[in-house]
């Protein structure tokens, strides 16, 4: 992305003064293009050229922050259309919508339920990021009180109202927590932009269609608002997907500035489960913020799991710590399983050991996060290294037997492992799914 | 301000696959299914053609399966394969069925080949939708079994599986001789996927009779790997790679219902909410993600996930050109 050396050269003073270091302006331009030099080194560059070069070197999608420390949501700054090309960087912020016209008790209950939406699985923690508080009461004081109730529970906010007076009332209470203001449209953008600037908050820009969003983004920018989120929500799922895709493609491939911001989408289905599927599609197709009404644990856990999967870095397999892991209420007679530290491999084994109802120890050998066969093929599953790990990990102090179950796919190493470690090697099933049957037969 | 819509143009299209033959073509199916043919990514109506909608196949088995009790309750009586098949089509709206002949497994019920073939014929007599039929996973038994199934259903143009790199010749030959299409399965690896398609087409089964099974990993258990393989294969197809251009099948139900998250009760994991809904969504979310990547046939088990997905596909098939 960015400008080529020649394009940059055209904007330079062409004095060849050498004060920046390189012998010519062209050489300096080439260094700028490859990121090896900074424009600050040139004493003669015009303001006009600087602005043009800054704009060209800005990320195609701006990084936007919502909320205050310690819980700041960062969205945007994405560079890819497909995760396999590099990675997606900033996971979609998931927001649960709550109306301010609930009774005080209902509101408190809902906010508590949202605060409780945090999940531990496979050694990771998933959380909901935001409460999207919508003003339906048309009552500024009530909206502000509801916002305060959320802020008091350390929940970050999206504030939803078209009425600048209502928005101002809430911002007076929670403005310092950098909520996302939602939002500016053709009827209110001047006042909303002013509120956003006054409180230093990001602002959602909404239009009837893509032309409307682009026009309004330009207008709001010209008023000095630089932290924007663009709303892609349309009347149906398909059009919302199309809008989100256009935002992303135009920002990345055409550097279309009005769409150079993270995108937001509302789930519009009635049924909460249908909303979750909409959410899956919107997350897949570049929504930086997703707003749903669904708030039950069994609905939100699958959604957040999908987000975690999509945003995992394809270049870095997730690993677990290479140490003795205990599953269940283990004792000195519990079986010992060998696997690798690739998280998918490890957790497949762990869940099957759990399913077997026989507590056990799992030893994940450090294979740089590769699966059993890959590790073995790459020479990262050598019996001598495994024997060393068995000695050093402390398992010998925890059990009074010396039997280790190895993955069936590497049965070939059993002889050498037995020799190197002094442990009796049992060849386990080829797939983790076979563990419960294996345990039943052997323990 | 007028936004200039960005439309990517691709040089090629995804291939098509038709499953099922009606009486005119020498079969007995009352409905046939065609998938594939897309000239762009899923739901990108604004830049290309999406002539056929993705379909939902519901999985049934020849002997009562050992599935989650809440799933079995939603399905009703699964003791009779034919009654189960009929319910999937008439009540649950399945576009097609995916019959797993798990009863053939020598480690399990070890049903004789002739009994399995009889089950296949009963299901064909009971329902008019096209079928995918797969063996039990025991290589030796499956070679014998699927050959017999292919022969007994000659002319129906069913989708038979599964061919894998180590074992594809017998099934490929049977599909050629008896007029069926084949499921070509590779282990989440784009090169192996392509290689298998090349080997099968070299035996003279035409590409339009191959369906890719890229191997499905469930939500939370490597779904992103399946997602990216399917997405890469779709892009490959659009860029003209004929050996990645076949439509794709995702065996979602089998994988999703193996995960802990689909099955454990709130008593065991109070922080994860109700199991009934969680299980359905574990399956439906896995499927919806793979749908966005470019899968064509979604194999699911629960009637409610089938319904959720049908609705979602309806929504995604709405035109969205500007």
Report what the structure shows.
The complex is a heterodimer of chains A (443) and B (322). Chain A has 443 residues and is α/β, with parallel strands linked by helices. Helix content of chain A is 41%, strand content 16%. Chain A folds into three domains: 5-57, 3-methyladenine DNA Glycosylase II, Chain A, domain 3 (Orthogonal Bundle); 64-310, TIM Barrel (Alpha-Beta Barrel), CATH 3.20.20.20; 325-442, Rossmann fold (3-Layer(aba) Sandwich), CATH 3.40.50. In chain A, the strands form four sheets. In chain A, strands 3-6-7-8-9-10-11-12 form an eight-stranded parallel barrel, surrounded by six helices. In chain A, strands 13-15-14-16-17 form a five-stranded mixed β-sheet, sandwiched between helices. In chain A, helix 5 packs parallel to helix 6. Chain A starts with a helix and ends with a helix. Chain B has a single domain (16-316), classed as Dihydropteroate synthase-like (TIM Barrel, Alpha-Beta Barrel), CATH 3.20.20. In chain B, the strands form two sheets. Chain B has an eight-stranded parallel β-sheet with strand order 8-7-6-5-4-3-10-9. A two-stranded antiparallel ribbon of chain B has the order 1-2. In chain B, helix 7 (223-238) packs parallel to helix 10 (275-293). The longest helix of chain B is centred in the C-terminal third of the chain and has 19 residues, at 275-293. The model of chain B has no long low-confidence stretch (mean pLDDT 97). Chains A and B meet through strand 4, helix 8, helix 9, helix 10 and helix 11 of A and helix 7, helix 10 and helix 11 of B.
Task: Give a concise summary.
The complex is a heterodimer of chains A (443) and B (322). With 443 residues, chain A is of the alpha/beta class.
Q: Could you give the topology of this structure?
A:
The complex is a heterodimer of chains A (about 450) and B (about 325).
Chain A: H1 5-11, H2 25-33, H3 47-57, E1 64-66, E2 73-75, E3 93-99, H4 104-115, E4 118-121, E5 124-127, E6 130-134, H5 140-152, E7 156-160, H6 164-174, E8 180-184, H7 189-199, E9 203-205, H8 210-222, E10 228-231, H9 237-253, E11 263-266, H10 272-284, E12 289-292, H11 297-310, E13 325-327, E14 336-340, H12 343-355, E15 360-365, H13 372-377, H14 383-392, H15 395-398, E16 403-406, H16 414-421, E17 424-427, H17 435-442
Parallel strand pairs in A: 3-6, 3-12, 6-7, 7-8, 8-9, 9-10, 10-11, 11-12, 14-15, 14-16, 16-17
Antiparallel strand pairs in A: 1-2, 4-5, 13-15
Helix pairs in contact in A: 1-2, 5-6, 6-7, 10-11, 14-16
Chain B: E1 16-19, E2 33-36, E3 55-61, H1 69-75, H2 81-90, E4 96-100, H3 113-126, E5 131-134, H4 139-152, E6 159-164, H5 169-178, E7 181-185, H6 190-202, E8 210-213, H7 223-238, E9 249-250, H8 252-256, H9 260-263, H10 275-293, E10 297-300, H11 303-316
Helix pairs in contact in B: 2-3, 3-4, 4-5, 7-10, 10-11
